[in-house]
Amino acid sequence: MLQPITYRQLIADCEAETRRYVTLEREGAVATVRMDNPTRLNSLTPALCWQLHQTLRGLADDPAVRVIILTGADPAFCAGGDLELIARGEPTIKEGAEGTAEIWRWIRRQFGGVARLLTQTDKYCIAAVNGPAGVGLSFAFACDHLIGSERAELVLAFGRIGLVPEVGCNWQLTRRLGYHQAMELFIAGERLDAARALQLGLLNRVVPHAQLLEQARQWAARVCAVPENVVEMTKAQMRKAADLSWDQALTLEEFAEPNCFTTEAHRAAVRGLLAAGRR
Q: Judging by DSSP bridges, how do beta strands 153-155 and 132-133 pair with one another?
């Protein structure tokens, strides 16, 4: 018989896990993070989710890193939640409010923790969506740029298993698509192929599967070609702009702009334009 679980117990189990379900590759200022449990389509088991959170937190704190690429081991990006964990949570939920609070802690601090980290870090984050993305869609949407391979699938099947869109998906979908289209996709429980997702504006680009990571790295190189402070300041502002009035957004920009004037990157660019005869 399944016994109730606690957040502390889940964390202890994750800390004791010796297998790596998340791999990390570093090349200069670009870090590639891969969810790596392909036999389970990189579903968000406790160990994978916890290792992903820990890995991203370390990169967010590393001043040498400018770009994070998030992808999955083929054939999936991150197909869904961990059904075994959901089943294990049933006796916990039956304990009432105390049990529900244990589940809430995991959802907020781990699932939500990954999404918050991707959106709130100053690092530029690229989702390289290589296959089906179910719950992992939340993490892809939290990134700053979404590149899909031709095998990418966005799986909006929350309602089919009795769940609401989670981990920021409601916010992301309604802002990208508007309320009516977002609700239509939710009710339909659609699996959007790469072409349809691109048409709807849910992916920035679609590329051949074999070129996915190379294309993501090329975009990362373009990011790194822009002065570091400019990328960081722009991300911080754009992440807030949709929820601000025009005047509030303008005020943020007015505070940031004088800081840009003080940088050598800006002064060198101006000198270069002047030398080229551009006024």
A: parallel
